Amino acid sequence: MTDPKQILIDLKPLKKFFIGIDSDGCVFDTMEIKQKKCFFPNFIKFFNLGEISEYAKETWEFVNLYSQYRGCNRFQALIKVVDLLKIRSEVSSKNIELPDLTLLKEWTKTETKLGNPSLQKYAGEMNNKVIGQTLEWSKAVNKDIERIVYEVPPFPFVKDSFEMMFPEADLMVVSQTPFEALKREWDENKLTHYLRIIAGQEMGTKAEHLKYAAKGKYPENKILMIGDAPGDLHAAKSNNVLFFPIFPGSETNSWELFYKEALRKFFNGNFEGAYENSLINDFNKLLPEKPGWK
What we know:
Elements: H1 5-9, E1 17-21, H2 31-46, H3 53-65, H4 74-86, H5 89-92, H6 102-110, H7 116-126, H8 129-148, H9 158-165, E2 169-174, H10 179-188, E3 197-199, H11 206-213, E4 223-227, H12 230-237, E5 242-245, H13 251-268, H14 274-284
Parallel strand pairs: 1-2, 1-4, 2-3, 4-5
Protein backbone atom coordinates (compact mmCIF):
# COMPACT_ATOMS: atom_id res chain seq x y z
CA MET A 1 0.00 0.00 0.00
CA THR A 2 1.38 3.43 -1.00
CA ASP A 3 2.19 5.81 1.85
CA PRO A 4 -0.22 8.78 1.58
CA LYS A 5 2.74 11.10 2.22
CA GLN A 6 4.22 10.05 -1.12
CA ILE A 7 1.69 12.30 -2.88
CA LEU A 8 3.17 15.26 -1.02
CA ILE A 9 6.75 14.16 -1.62
CA ASP A 10 6.07 13.84 -5.36
CA LEU A 11 4.54 17.33 -5.66
CA LYS A 12 6.58 19.44 -8.09
CA PRO A 13 6.53 23.25 -7.98
CA LEU A 14 4.65 24.90 -10.82
CA LYS A 15 4.85 28.45 -9.47
CA LYS A 16 7.31 30.60 -7.53
CA PHE A 17 5.35 30.61 -4.27
CA PHE A 18 3.63 28.02 -2.07
CA ILE A 19 0.70 28.74 0.26
CA GLY A 20 -0.81 26.19 2.65
CA ILE A 21 -4.27 26.96 3.99
CA ASP A 22 -6.12 25.43 6.92
CA SER A 23 -9.83 24.74 6.39
CA ASP A 24 -12.11 24.57 9.47
CA GLY A 25 -12.34 27.94 11.20
CA CYS A 26 -9.94 29.44 8.69
CA VAL A 27 -11.62 29.31 5.27
CA PHE A 28 -15.02 28.09 6.50
CA ASP A 29 -16.93 29.08 9.65
CA THR A 30 -17.40 25.43 10.64
CA MET A 31 -15.52 25.13 13.93
CA GLU A 32 -18.42 26.00 16.24
CA ILE A 33 -21.05 23.82 14.57
CA LYS A 34 -18.73 20.81 14.24
CA GLN A 35 -17.48 20.97 17.81
CA LYS A 36 -20.81 21.79 19.48
CA LYS A 37 -23.19 19.70 17.35
CA CYS A 38 -21.03 16.76 16.22
CA PHE A 39 -17.94 16.18 18.36
CA PHE A 40 -19.26 17.02 21.83
CA PRO A 41 -22.65 15.21 21.79
CA ASN A 42 -20.93 12.03 20.63
CA PHE A 43 -18.28 12.45 23.33
CA ILE A 44 -21.05 12.37 25.95
CA LYS A 45 -22.82 9.47 24.25
CA PHE A 46 -19.95 7.09 23.58
CA PHE A 47 -18.13 7.63 26.89
CA ASN A 48 -21.28 7.71 29.07
CA LEU A 49 -20.64 11.15 30.57
CA GLY A 50 -24.16 12.52 30.79
CA GLU A 51 -23.84 13.03 34.54
CA ILE A 52 -21.09 15.64 34.04
CA SER A 53 -22.30 17.06 30.71
CA GLU A 54 -22.17 20.67 31.98
CA TYR A 55 -18.50 20.47 32.95
CA ALA A 56 -17.64 18.28 29.98
CA LYS A 57 -19.15 20.84 27.60
CA GLU A 58 -17.20 23.71 29.14
CA THR A 59 -13.99 21.68 28.99
CA TRP A 60 -14.60 20.45 25.44
CA GLU A 61 -15.24 23.95 24.10
CA PHE A 62 -12.24 25.39 25.94
CA VAL A 63 -9.88 22.85 24.41
CA ASN A 64 -11.29 22.83 20.89
CA LEU A 65 -12.40 26.44 20.40
CA TYR A 66 -11.08 28.88 22.95
CA SER A 67 -7.55 27.83 23.90
CA GLN A 68 -4.06 27.19 22.58
CA TYR A 69 -5.24 23.67 21.71
CA ARG A 70 -7.78 24.97 19.17
CA GLY A 71 -7.55 23.11 15.89
CA CYS A 72 -5.52 20.18 17.17
CA ASN A 73 -6.19 16.63 15.99
CA ARG A 74 -9.44 15.15 17.34
CA PHE A 75 -7.72 12.32 19.22
CA GLN A 76 -5.22 14.66 20.84
CA ALA A 77 -8.12 16.92 21.79
CA LEU A 78 -9.98 13.99 23.32
CA ILE A 79 -6.95 13.19 25.47
CA LYS A 80 -6.59 16.80 26.60
CA VAL A 81 -10.28 17.09 27.51
CA VAL A 82 -10.20 13.92 29.62
CA ASP A 83 -6.97 15.00 31.33
CA LEU A 84 -8.56 18.34 32.28
CA LEU A 85 -11.75 16.67 33.48
CA LYS A 86 -9.69 14.43 35.77
CA ILE A 87 -8.40 17.45 37.71
CA ARG A 88 -11.71 19.32 37.95
CA SER A 89 -13.03 19.16 41.51
CA GLU A 90 -16.63 19.33 40.26
CA VAL A 91 -16.03 16.10 38.34
CA SER A 92 -14.00 14.20 40.94
CA SER A 93 -16.67 14.90 43.58
CA LYS A 94 -19.16 12.87 41.53
CA ASN A 95 -16.95 9.79 41.52
CA ILE A 96 -17.66 9.20 37.82
CA GLU A 97 -15.49 6.87 35.74
CA LEU A 98 -13.59 8.69 33.01
CA PRO A 99 -12.13 6.68 30.12
CA ASP A 100 -8.58 5.39 30.52
CA LEU A 101 -6.86 6.76 27.42
CA THR A 102 -3.39 5.34 28.16
CA LEU A 103 -3.30 3.25 25.01
CA LEU A 104 -4.65 6.11 22.90
CA LYS A 105 -1.88 8.36 24.24
CA GLU A 106 0.72 5.77 23.26
CA TRP A 107 -0.76 5.57 19.77
CA THR A 108 -0.71 9.36 19.26
CA LYS A 109 2.96 9.47 20.26
CA THR A 110 4.06 7.00 17.59
CA GLU A 111 1.49 7.42 14.80
CA THR A 112 1.48 10.62 12.71
CA LYS A 113 -1.48 9.77 10.46
CA LEU A 114 -4.03 10.26 13.22
CA GLY A 115 -7.19 9.25 11.42
CA ASN A 116 -9.78 6.49 11.46
CA PRO A 117 -7.93 4.13 9.08
CA SER A 118 -4.86 4.05 11.34
CA LEU A 119 -6.99 3.80 14.49
CA GLN A 120 -9.00 0.95 12.95
CA LYS A 121 -5.77 -0.99 12.44
CA TYR A 122 -4.64 -0.21 16.00
CA ALA A 123 -8.01 -1.25 17.43
CA GLY A 124 -7.69 -4.61 15.72
CA GLU A 125 -4.23 -5.12 17.20
CA MET A 126 -5.07 -4.05 20.76
CA ASN A 127 -8.63 -5.38 21.21
CA ASN A 128 -9.16 -2.73 23.89
CA LYS A 129 -12.61 -1.48 24.94
CA VAL A 130 -11.68 2.22 25.14
CA ILE A 131 -9.86 2.17 21.80
CA GLY A 132 -12.98 0.59 20.32
CA GLN A 133 -15.16 3.28 21.89
CA THR A 134 -12.85 5.97 20.53
CA LEU A 135 -13.06 4.57 17.02
CA GLU A 136 -16.86 4.36 17.15
CA TRP A 137 -16.99 7.92 18.53
CA SER A 138 -14.83 9.18 15.67
CA LYS A 139 -16.91 7.37 13.05
CA ALA A 140 -20.11 8.81 14.52
CA VAL A 141 -18.59 12.30 14.44
CA ASN A 142 -17.86 11.92 10.73
CA LYS A 143 -21.41 10.75 10.02
CA ASP A 144 -22.89 13.70 11.91
CA ILE A 145 -20.62 16.18 10.14
CA GLU A 146 -21.78 14.80 6.79
CA ARG A 147 -25.41 15.02 7.94
CA ILE A 148 -25.33 18.41 9.66
CA VAL A 149 -22.52 20.51 8.17
CA TYR A 150 -23.14 21.47 4.56
CA GLU A 151 -23.34 24.57 2.37
CA VAL A 152 -21.28 26.64 4.79
CA PRO A 153 -19.77 29.41 2.64
CA PRO A 154 -16.22 30.70 3.01
CA PHE A 155 -15.59 33.87 4.97
CA PRO A 156 -15.78 37.16 3.05
CA PHE A 157 -12.61 38.00 1.09
CA VAL A 158 -11.62 34.32 0.85
CA LYS A 159 -12.59 33.90 -2.80
CA ASP A 160 -11.06 37.27 -3.67
CA SER A 161 -7.85 36.15 -1.98
CA PHE A 162 -7.80 32.88 -3.90
CA GLU A 163 -8.19 34.76 -7.16
CA MET A 164 -5.16 36.84 -6.22
CA MET A 165 -3.09 33.91 -4.90
CA PHE A 166 -3.74 31.46 -7.70
CA PRO A 167 -1.69 33.02 -10.53
CA GLU A 168 1.46 33.23 -8.38
CA ALA A 169 1.32 30.37 -5.88
CA ASP A 170 0.81 26.63 -5.62
CA LEU A 171 -2.04 26.21 -3.13
CA MET A 172 -2.71 23.29 -0.79
CA VAL A 173 -5.16 22.58 2.02
CA VAL A 174 -3.25 21.75 5.22
CA SER A 175 -5.70 20.25 7.71
CA GLN A 176 -6.35 17.65 10.38
CA THR A 177 -9.89 17.11 9.10
CA PRO A 178 -10.55 13.82 7.25
CA PHE A 179 -10.07 14.11 3.48
CA GLU A 180 -13.64 13.09 2.67
CA ALA A 181 -15.11 16.05 4.60
CA LEU A 182 -12.53 18.47 3.19
CA LYS A 183 -13.21 17.42 -0.40
CA ARG A 184 -16.96 17.75 0.09
CA GLU A 185 -16.73 21.23 1.64
CA TRP A 186 -14.28 22.62 -0.92
CA ASP A 187 -16.25 21.10 -3.80
CA GLU A 188 -19.53 22.56 -2.48
CA ASN A 189 -18.01 26.02 -2.58
CA LYS A 190 -16.32 25.58 -5.96
CA LEU A 191 -12.84 26.22 -4.56
CA THR A 192 -11.19 22.88 -5.36
CA HIS A 193 -9.93 24.02 -8.77
CA TYR A 194 -7.54 26.45 -7.08
CA LEU A 195 -5.74 23.64 -5.25
CA ARG A 196 -2.84 21.35 -6.08
CA ILE A 197 -3.65 18.97 -3.20
CA ILE A 198 -6.07 18.57 -0.30
CA ALA A 199 -4.03 17.18 2.61
CA GLY A 200 -6.10 15.86 5.50
CA GLN A 201 -5.28 13.89 8.64
CA GLU A 202 -4.58 10.75 6.60
CA MET A 203 -1.42 12.37 5.17
CA GLY A 204 0.14 13.13 8.56
CA THR A 205 0.52 16.23 10.70
CA LYS A 206 0.29 19.77 9.41
CA ALA A 207 4.03 20.18 9.93
CA GLU A 208 4.60 17.08 7.81
CA HIS A 209 2.31 18.41 5.09
CA LEU A 210 4.48 21.50 4.74
CA LYS A 211 7.71 19.58 5.11
CA TYR A 212 6.99 17.06 2.36
CA ALA A 213 5.05 19.28 -0.04
CA ALA A 214 7.06 22.50 0.11
CA LYS A 215 10.22 22.41 2.22
CA GLY A 216 13.33 22.48 0.04
CA LYS A 217 11.27 22.94 -3.11
CA TYR A 218 10.65 26.68 -2.67
CA PRO A 219 12.73 29.30 -0.83
CA GLU A 220 11.58 29.47 2.81
CA ASN A 221 10.51 33.11 2.45
CA LYS A 222 8.24 32.07 -0.43
CA ILE A 223 6.32 29.51 1.63
CA LEU A 224 3.33 30.75 3.67
CA MET A 225 0.91 28.98 6.02
CA ILE A 226 -2.51 30.55 6.68
CA GLY A 227 -4.32 29.31 9.79
CA ASP A 228 -6.50 30.13 12.76
CA ALA A 229 -4.90 27.93 15.41
CA PRO A 230 -1.59 27.70 17.29
CA GLY A 231 -0.99 24.34 15.63
CA ASP A 232 -0.91 26.11 12.27
CA LEU A 233 1.71 28.52 13.58
CA HIS A 234 3.73 25.61 14.95
CA ALA A 235 3.54 23.81 11.60
CA ALA A 236 4.93 26.89 9.86
CA LYS A 237 7.69 27.69 12.31
CA SER A 238 8.83 24.08 12.71
CA ASN A 239 9.61 24.32 9.00
CA ASN A 240 11.03 27.86 9.28
CA VAL A 241 8.43 29.29 6.89
CA LEU A 242 6.06 32.26 7.12
CA PHE A 243 2.68 32.44 8.85
CA PHE A 244 -0.40 34.60 8.47
CA PRO A 245 -2.97 34.26 11.28
CA ILE A 246 -6.73 34.27 10.85
CA PHE A 247 -7.91 35.61 14.21
CA PRO A 248 -10.77 33.57 15.77
CA GLY A 249 -13.73 35.91 16.12
CA SER A 250 -12.28 38.38 13.59
CA GLU A 251 -12.04 36.13 10.55
CA THR A 252 -13.54 38.61 8.07
CA ASN A 253 -11.20 41.37 9.18
CA SER A 254 -8.26 38.97 8.95
CA TRP A 255 -9.09 37.92 5.39
CA GLU A 256 -9.67 41.54 4.39
CA LEU A 257 -6.22 42.43 5.72
CA PHE A 258 -4.71 39.47 3.88
CA TYR A 259 -6.43 40.38 0.61
CA LYS A 260 -5.75 44.12 0.73
CA GLU A 261 -2.28 44.18 2.27
CA ALA A 262 -0.54 41.03 3.54
CA LEU A 263 -0.59 38.98 0.33
CA ARG A 264 1.08 41.76 -1.63
CA LYS A 265 3.73 42.03 1.04
CA PHE A 266 4.33 38.27 0.81
CA PHE A 267 4.69 38.38 -2.98
CA ASN A 268 6.92 41.49 -2.79
CA GLY A 269 9.22 40.02 -0.13
CA ASN A 270 8.15 42.50 2.57
CA PHE A 271 6.15 40.12 4.79
CA GLU A 272 8.97 38.53 6.77
CA GLY A 273 10.30 40.39 9.79
CA ALA A 274 8.53 43.15 11.70
CA TYR A 275 5.22 42.78 9.82
CA GLU A 276 4.87 39.03 10.41
CA ASN A 277 6.17 39.29 13.99
CA SER A 278 3.53 41.89 14.87
CA LEU A 279 0.74 39.68 13.55
CA ILE A 280 2.04 36.63 15.43
CA ASN A 281 2.46 38.56 18.68
CA ASP A 282 -1.18 39.68 18.55
CA PHE A 283 -2.31 36.17 17.62
CA ASN A 284 -0.45 34.58 20.54
CA LYS A 285 -2.25 36.86 23.00
CA LEU A 286 -5.66 35.75 21.78
CA LEU A 287 -5.96 32.17 23.06
CA PRO A 288 -5.08 31.14 26.64
CA GLU A 289 -3.24 27.96 27.58
CA LYS A 290 -4.94 27.46 30.96
CA PRO A 291 -8.70 27.40 31.58
CA GLY A 292 -10.33 30.00 33.75
CA TRP A 293 -11.65 27.45 36.25
CA LYS A 294 -8.15 26.33 37.36
